Amino acid sequence: MTFNDFNFDAKILEGLDAMGYSQPTPIQEQAIPVILQNKDIIACAQTGTGKTAAYILPILQKILHTKHRHLNTLVIAPTRELAQQIDQQIEGFAYFVGVSSIPVYGGGDGATWDMQKKAMVNGADIIVATPGRLLSQLQSGSMILEHLECLVLDEADRMLDMGFYDDIIRIMKFLPDTRQTLLFSATMPPKIRALAAKTLKEPEQINIAISKPAEGILQQAYLVYDSQKLSLIKNILKYGKFESVIVFASTKENVKKLDLELHRAGIKVKAFHSDLEQPEREAIMREFKSKQLPVIIGTDILSRGIDVEGIDLVVNFDSPRDPEDYVHRIGRTARAQTTGTAITFINDKDQFYFSNIENLIGYSIPKLELPEGFSEGPKYQPEVRPKKTFGGKPPFKGNKKPGGFKKQ
């Protein structure tokens, strides 16, 4: 199957050709015909499957054949980074089409707010927005959505995880009842089903296998005590031949502390978190994409909000508790049919949860021996469910059992 089979306008096909797109991905094959038929859809597909093009291309096709141009489509995304990436993709697909888009997100100063407000008043075909800033603009009366034809909820599960459910429901009150609604989510927990029931009408359901990492990812794991983690990541980053690396930690506080420790070790790295101002975050991402910055550290929000090719290593400094989060994290590497490596640190408390990851993906991930100079790590006992604890300890000061890097 090729994109010609969708009977797209020649201008859209020209843009696809210029961007190097030849064959549609599975989500595109299934979603595009349904969207062109003006049906609502609820699609389960993870980042990296081509879902943005799956909804943008048919929307562009319909806009091209609209007699009266006005604000046609509203795309809601959980983070500024994802909103920017979607807007950039729209610009690429629409280069030869003449369809306009505006990103609307928080951060910045009053000038940013005024610029977004002016752009919305002047009009655009597509608006890509984060829930909070969009709701603020709607409540200010600067955006009129009475002629809206299509609503897209992208990364819906992540938006709900971030606490945007009430904002989304409030946004719905500003939208016309007669519209097409497209909901994309990496997972389909009950709360997503509940949201779909409130926002979609007789939707077509599309499910793309999401729980299998790309075949090009070399997955590895180390059994470590918390006290060994810092020495191990330094060892990997200093002696491994990796040019572009993402390190995932469990919390923003851990991200900051790990950033400080790696800087002290002379490793060129920057932390990416919500306490940074928007210009700082954009500058870090530009450095990372241009390969000027080799290592970036973040939490799971980064796993959904970054689209960078050429990442050759992902490190789970803290093993994720949710199997789907594991798939999303390591999916940052081996994109666009490339190869990459994913390394996970498993402490004694996370073994039970890591076994759930292996059950989900359907195979066991190799557990490597620690490098020379390291004490032995914990034994792998995934059948032992960890005891519930209250409170927590700072990172790098966990289990006091033997461990740590021995200087040569």
Summarize the structure.
This protein is 38% helix and 15% strand. With 408 residues, the chain is of the alpha/beta class. The protein folds into two domains: 3-207, 3-Layer(aba) Sandwich (Rossmann fold); 217-368, Rossmann fold (3-Layer(aba) Sandwich), CATH 3.40.50.300.
When the domains are counted, the total is: 2
The succession of helices and strands, N to C, reads HHEHEHEHEHEHHEHEEHEHEHEHEHEHE
- The first-level CATH class of the largest domain is given as Alpha Beta
- Classify the helix fraction into a percent range: 25-40%
Provide the CATH topology of the largest domain: Rossmann fold
SS content category: alpha/beta
The CATH architecture term of the largest domain is: 3-Layer(aba) Sandwich
Question: Strand count, sense and closure of the main sheet?
Answer: 7 strands, parallel
Major beta sheet, strand line-up: 3-4-2-5-6-1-7
Shape: globular
Strand content: 5-15%
Number of helices: 15
Ranges where pLDDT stays below 50 over 5 or more residues in a row are 389-408
Overall average residue pLDDT = 84
CATH superfamily of the largest domain: P-loop containing nucleotide triphosphate hydrolases
Number of strands: 14
Radius of gyration: 22 Å
Distance between the termini: 58 Å
Question: Could you describe the 3D structure shown?
Answer:
This protein has 408 residues and is α/β, with parallel strands linked by helices. It folds into two domains: 3-207, Rossmann fold (3-Layer(aba) Sandwich); 217-368, Rossmann fold. It is 38% helix and 15% strand. It has 15 helices and 14 strands. It has helices at residues 10-18, 26-36, 51-64, 80-93, 110-122, 131-139, 156-161, 165-172, 190-199, 226-239, 252-264, 278-289, 300-304, 323-330, 351-361; strands spanning 41-44, 73-76, 101-104, 126-129, 150-153, 180-185, 204-207, 217-223, 245-248, 269-271, 295-298, 313-316, 340-346, 367-368. The strands form two sheets. A seven-stranded parallel beta sheet has the order 3-4-2-5-6-1-7, with helices on both faces. A seven-stranded parallel beta sheet has the order 10-11-9-12-13-8-14, with helices on both faces. Helix 6 (131-139) runs parallel beside helix 8. The longest helix has 14 residues, at 51-64. The protein is globular.
